[in-house]
Design brief:
two-stranded antiparallel ribbon, about 20% strand, 9-stranded mixed β-sheet, alpha/beta, 12 helices, about 375 residues
Amino acid sequence: MTIRNRAYIVGAYEHPTRKAPDKSVAQLHAESARGALADAGLTKDDVDGYFCAGDAPGMGPLSMVDYMNLKVRHVDATDIGGSSYLMLVAHAAEAIAMGKCSVALITLAGRPRSEGGMQVRAGNASQPDVQWEYPFGVTVANAYALCAMRHMHEYGTTSEQLAWVKVAASHHAQWNPHAMLRDVVTVEDVVNSPMVTDPLHRLDCCVISDGGGALVVVSPEIARSLSRPLVAVRGAGEAPKHTMAGGVDLTFSGGRWSGPIAFAEAGVKPSDIKYASIYDSFTITVVMQLEDIGFCEKGGGGRFVSDGNLISGVGKLPFNTDGGGLCNNHPANRGGITKVIEAVRQLRGEAHPKVQVPNCDLALAHGTGGLLGTRHGSATLVLERQ
């Protein structure tokens, strides 16, 4: 079953807080939901499907449906880390196409900044695969650093090239009043920032923030009844990548598979995309995903980003025009919903005028969840303004 043009995103909301010591995670979910529903011109009484991931408190959708007093006939709590919310958009579109619901509410929230930061250790020893790695002290940052180091070894990628991802994000974040880091940085600023885990510097890493976001996905009939721009879910792909019984290649991600699936369903190719939201937990994450999705050849990501291609108004593939996770916010380790929100803004023509992509009618959002250096999930969405 194809989901092409079977569902539309009519509501999108990014919570403005970056630190919320006085709010619960459930409150942030609910406030984000209210914002997205208001954006769509709908109310909670219109919602008949609810979607969330592992950031939702309690028993996930069961707890949140009760907390927000929703009356739904379909729920989904699929969790694959940072790519969860891109996959949930696709799952919502599938549920709508199958008649399981007609107004799907998707919410994310987190308080890692108020609660003392993201989880540093990668997983726990009770997980069946992680138990073999846990004794060696794997952390999130060094798992990504392994990929960066191997990419440098295989393809000659440099720290200066990786730094261009942060430079591009900072050029965009300066126009976002809610961004945590609004100062424009240079390549020199990045490579001279403190080393976190070789070869990744502090400015190669994403920010840690509180916050949240929400989306409303509806059937075509409801979308056409609302006074909102039509943003169609045109194609979607998802794929896991594992350690492959020890046959590990650290230089590619699951985007190698999820990207082509999404493009095939959408009936478009990478060169058709006007804007890209790319999950940016680290600078190396962006470089590898650009290659795997097909925006440049494998091993050419460093050269692609260092040519300024990611900067709106300068390059041929503007990315993360809200500043992304590197500069704007990263409200939970499942923060991929922000990628979809900014893609919707671009397609509606509602991004900041300084970074709005002219005639933006086709956008891509891509997320990675888990650890790029071990096991992770990838999810890709192609969205179209109609």
